[in-house]
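---------- Forwarded message ----------

FYI, see the Glutathione synthetase record below. Original note from H. follows.
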Amino acid sequence: MDIYESMGLMGAILSSFTFLPQVIRTWKIKSADDLSMGMLVIVFCSTIVWLIYGFALWLIPVLIANSAILVLSLTLIYFKVTFKKRKATVIN
């Protein structure tokens, strides 16, 4: 493994954690009101494109980072939909 591949893997690991603090915070406070659904959908779509690219060229750092981001962005989308429904139910 050369220095550039090591840097790619380190970047992938760091990028993978991008959404983790937001997922943890959203889960703890049980509210996703501050999150933009538009932003989450754009992140989800861009992640799919990056995964296709990563699979086509078999770029492991791209696959690692975007697989993690896919899971975390889907989790935030789930929270955005689920917590909104819970809040509406509690208010009614």
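H. also flagged this: The chain has a mean pLDDT of 91.
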